[in-house]
Amino acid sequence: MGGTTGKNINVTVKVWRQRNKNEKGSFETHDMKGVSTDMSFLEMFDVLNERLITEGKDPVAFDHDCREGICGMCSMYINGRPHGPKNAVTTCQLHMRSFNDGDTIVVEPWRSAAFPVVKDLVVDRAAFDRVIAAGGFVSVNTGNAKDANNILIPKPEADEAFNAAACIGCGACVAACKNGSAMLFVSAKVSQLALLPQGKIEAEKRVLDMVHQMDVEGFGNCTNTGACEAECPKSISLENIARMNREYVFASANEKK
Amino acid sequence: MSNAGFLKSSIGKKVIMGATGLFLITFLMVHCFINMLIFFQDGGETFNKGAEFMGTNWLIRAMEIVLFVGIILHIVQALVLTLENRKARPVPYEKINGAANSSWYSRSMGLLGTLILMFLIIHLKHFWVVSRFTDHIAHNEYEKLPGQETLFKEMMEVFENPMVVLVYVLAMISLTYHLLHGFQSAFQTFGLNHRKYTPIIKKTGIAFSIIICTLFASMPIAMHFGFVK
Q1: What ipTM, to 2 d.p.?
Q2: Over chain B (229 residues), what is each successive 10-residue block's mean pLDDT?
Q3: What fold characterizes domain A125-254?
Q4: Chain B residues with at least one Cβ partner in A under 8 Å
């Protein structure tokens, strides 16, 4: 068992409340007294919600599932940064020891035209699903594990594809970007397939279709600030965006239409 | 999707920004090298010859049109992108900690660009309008008619005003930061991101931005304080 710090802190949570997609939201402030620093950030919200339920009030809605940093469901914008103050972690892996006694913590949903607020901190990220559906797949059955092993892939390329595939689709890149651009997500999904022989065949059509869908969804345009890479809980590299840019340019030039 | 589709796509628009940006960078180099001729300390004779060449050579005059097209494309595309990006986040954040993930100048390209545009208007009025649309400027001291000045003398006169010098220096600081992001950003937009070459591109960009803008800023300063004879 890991050691405990055994400390309790008092924090003020300023959280966004919004009843539904159409209603205007506003901030609500809650004093959280005696919060254990060993608690995760979401556990702190669980405590708040139990209190709200006891008081007969509406609990704060937020997305979460695995709570071990691999599902990509949690999505809070904490004190001006997606997934909070620590690098390369999701909100569920953030602990209260990252905050100080007396802190005011501002918690907001992802802000993007493409991610409408469903309720409170929950946003609808179906835009990402539609980008994947536009081309983030291989059309034919590529066999089972044995067949995959018959195609030799150099280790560096396999690693690069794997690093791109580490994207959990949480949307922190969109939330972090001052332009609300989804380039890091889309480029990771384009790259993970384009780097491997099974995905290479459809690479040109894939990049054209996925970028087109990305634009249709209303995401902003990339200005290479690098905020997405810095805030990504899986440290997806900007190299993927460069790869998508050049694939898109060449695919557009090759297009027969 | 047709070629028009490419130019309308988010990536296509960025490629135009990067391409026009790099083209404007090549202009900066030419402009800076010609202007460096003021430091020959020969009363502007060499500089005036350079200015005459730039003003009369047909290729340079043709490129002047291309240059204006490039500047306008860069500005118009920037406006289009900025408006689209605003629409992409209709509800703003209450608290943003941008310093945690990106440089302030990479997030302020629009503001820096606007400052540069304001300077550009002043700058064009100072020298370009006078050279092209009035007969105030003589090619050299020997062919000078009454009431005429050489471009070198015109510069000396304009930079007598300390406020003008200040505006020029501040504009060059804006340009430095604009280029610090813009230079390397263009390569990323073209898809050139490589573990071996990107660090070289970034260092070249930093060196270029600082050197070219320092040289430009040194001209009004040197003329104002009488270091140029």
Answers
A1: 0.94
A2: 76 97 98 96 95 94 96 97 97 97 97 98 96 90 89 96 98 98 98 96 98 98 95
A3: Fumarate Reductase Iron-sulfur Protein; Chain B, domain 2 (1.10.1060)
A4: 1-3, 5-6, 9-15, 81, 84-85, 87-98, 100-103, 106-107, 109, 181, 184-185, 188-193, 195
